[in-house]
Amino acid sequence: MPVITFANAKGGAGKTTAALILATELASQGHRITILDADPQRWISHWHEISGRQRNIAVISEVSMASIQGHIRENRDTTDYFIIDLAGARDALVATAIGLSDHVMIPVQGCAMDARGAAQILELLKQLDEKAGIRIGHSVVLTRMNSMVTTRAMAAIKALLSARGVAVLDTPIGERTAFRDIFDCGGTLYSMDPAKVSNLDKARENARLFAGEVLGLLPSRKRSATGRGLFRTLRQAA
Are 214 and 2 in contact (CB under 8 A)? Predict the structure, then answer.
């Protein structure tokens, strides 16, 4: 039951959208998903409330530094993938969640402020590696990419990040009506009406490719991250 965490120290980078797209796509494929909604805005919790019972998806809304490890431990037998949506911050809860993760996804829209927020998460990952020997896989996912962005521009962004040693997913999250409507209407991309949502087929394909690439990044064996030493390091890193 791998733990996939979405983090950017700046809010508005598209992490909640990316987290929900991944969760609902994996659930549609038959995987059991538990979402830990650690964002104070509670957008995913609100989505869950208006959506009603969703097959293969559970949402936990009350998440704190003290409770997060317990939530994972208590639900691991009924979960294939945990997905954590964090606040746009760098604090003790963010550090703890990252320390418990098998892979950290860092959403970036491509603006300077998002890049600075991403840099803070990358620095935290570096500290966990250097101070505690906790090496956690991580990748940047480009979000809210407009269809007008050229392939050449995309390649330039990826090359810039790669030059700094940052892996970038080949699949960006597009700027799509369906990805916005899911928070207003509830449900999933597969319960939406194609007659009412433009380019729904492209949104579904985007979600499928994104989920497939994320799954390919996960380690074959879950890494254990427990113990007092870990949490002492996490508090210091935050």
Answer: no
In tens digits, what is the pLDDT along the chain, a chain of 238 residues? 899 999 998 877 789 999 999 999 999 999 999 999 999 999 999 999 999 888 999 999 989 999 999 999 999 999 999 999 998 877 899 999 999 999 999 998 866 676 778 888 988 998 888 888 888 999 999 887 776 655 666 666 677 667 767 888 989 998 899 999 999 999 999 999 999 999 999 999 999 999 999 999 987 544 444 444 454 555 555 5
The single-letter DSSP state of residue 77 is: G
Indicate the helix (H) or strand (E) that contains 185. Answer: helix 177-185
The whole-model pTM stands at: 0.87
Instruction: Kindly list the domain boundaries of the chain, sorted by start residue.
Output: 3-231
CA distance 106 to 50: 27
User: How many angstroms separate the CA atoms of 129 and 91, rounded?
Assistant: 17
What's the CATH class of domain 3-231?
Answer: alpha beta
